[in-house]
């Protein structure tokens, strides 16, 4: 009988260790949300066309995501778009692709974090966007995309004018 009890205790111990290694929703939730800052700098492609372009992004994510974006040195009076991206700024292209809430889902509204703003006559712009999506550890950067007329006027193939890697606060 003691041998059976020892075997049962050993089996219980193995099951406990195996179950502990399986992970849980609480463990997965640890990778969700947070607060970040990004200092946006002009991309290499836009260095000559927008040499003074710069910006900042303050990002917080918990029940949803809020992004506060402020930029300077862009073409005046144009509508720009910005997104949270899944790559770092030193990648090619800078920032990689759009961060998708559902990584296997469509790159479209409801699955991305997108901001739109129009620059002032001095080339500055600011906006805040809040979305019901929660960022995870795939969010790496914020990229500002120039509108097509500005990209064409500069003779460039890339619309990625500013990029900043997210740094955890």
From TrEMBL:
Instruction: Provide the taxonomic classification.
Output: Bacteria, Bacillati, Actinomycetota, Actinomycetes, Glycomycetales
**What family does the Swiss-Prot or TrEMBL record give for this protein?**
Belongs to the Cu-Zn superoxide dismutase family.
Does the keyword Signal belong to this entry?
A: yes
InterPro entries attached here?
A: SOD-like_Cu/Zn_dom_sf
* Protein name (record): Uncharacterized protein
Q: Which domain of life is it from?
A: Bacteria
GO BP? superoxide metabolic process
Q: Which GO terms describe its molecular function?
A: metal ion binding
What is the protein's species of origin?
Answer: Glycomyces paridis
Task: Cite the entry's keywords alphabetically.
Answer: Signal
The answer to whether keyword rRNA-binding applies is: no
What does UniProt give as the signal peptide span? Answer: 1-20
């Amino acid at each position: 009988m003691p041998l059976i009890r020892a075997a049962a205790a050993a089996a219980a111990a193995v099951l406990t260790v195996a179950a502990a290694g399986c992970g849980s929703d609480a463990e997965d939730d640890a990778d969700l949300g947070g607060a970040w800052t990004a200092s946006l700098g002009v991309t290499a492609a836009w260095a000559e066309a927008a040499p003074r372009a710069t910006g900042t992004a303050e990002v917080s994510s918990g029940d949803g995501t809020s992004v506060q974006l402020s930029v300077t040195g862009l073409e005046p009076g144009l509508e720009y778009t910005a997104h949270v991206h899944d790559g770092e700024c030193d990648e090619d292209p800078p920032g990689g692709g759009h961060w998708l809430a559902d990584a296997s889902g469509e790159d479209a509204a409801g699955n991305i974090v997108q901001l739109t703003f129009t620059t002032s006559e001095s080339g500055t712009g600011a906006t805040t966007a809040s979305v019901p999506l929660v960022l995870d550890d795939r969010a790496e950067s914020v990229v500002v995309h120039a509108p097509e007329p500005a990209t064409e006027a500069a003779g460039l193939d890339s619309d990625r004018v500013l990029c900043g890697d997210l740094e955890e606060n």
